[in-house]
Predict the structure.
Amino acid sequence: IAGCMVKEGKLTRNAKVRIIRDGIVVYTGSLGSLKRFKDDVKEVLAGYDCGLNIDGYNDIKVGDVIESYTIVEIKRKL
C-alpha cells in the first residue's frame, strides 16, 4: 500500500492508473484498493491523503506520479 496525496481532481476506486517515474510511464494498470485512514472509500478528493494498492505492481518509489483516469465510451452519431 502506497501513501499519497491527491494533488488535483479525484481518485476513484475502480479507475485505471499510470505510474510515471522521471517523465516515463513505467506501469499501466488498475487501482486495487483505496483507503482513507483505515476505511475503504470509493473516492478521495484533491488535497487529501490516502493509501492505495495497485493490482499487480509493488515497486512504487518516492517521487512517482500516479495518474488516474477513466475510459468513457460515447456512442457515435451520424
